[in-house]
Write a structure and sequence with these properties.
By secondary structure, the protein is of the alpha/beta class. The chain is built from 6 helices and 7 strands, in the order βαβαβαβαβαββα. The protein has one domain: Formyl transferase, N-terminal domain (Rossmann fold, 3-Layer(aba) Sandwich), CATH 3.40.50.170.
Length: 189
Amino acid sequence: MKNIIIFASGAGSNAQAIIDHFKANGKARVSLIVCNKPQAGVIGIAERERIPFLLVDKSTYGQAMMLEQMADLKPSLIVLAGFLWKIPENIIAAFRGKIINIHPALLPNYGGKGMYGRHVHEAVIAKKEKQSGITIHQVDEVYDNGATITQAYCEVLPTDAPNDLAARIHKLEHFYYPRTIEFLLDDMK
């Protein structure tokens, strides 16, 4: 069974979509959830799904103990699902090529530090873009810089508020992220 580690900071809707997808097909399992916010909804998901979780703060994030705990699980992939901290270089080095992220825009546009969630949707609408979407990409040492794995598109309507666009983006995320993860896992030896 292939192991997935999820890093998340928020409500956890993408984490739940990934968990549900692999519970249904049995090709992998989420073996750990890493979170930096004790009150995040993803912690409740971890508890309900009986998935171990690791709460990190600035003093423990990326330290040797965290790396050892992750390495012991032999993850096939580390999946960022709304995790708002930059991944430390030592984690990237230890798991190079095995860390992916989902971004709620069509990179390279609307990426980088501070571009997440509502901020992205507000920027897309302010520029009167006709399309937005998601980008699933490799993680490297620079925010939203790694190689693109897949993109999916949706229309931006002239009447859209950020919440309207966010709802369409979430549908794309929940559909494409688990399937992209499955594709990547199937492609691994």
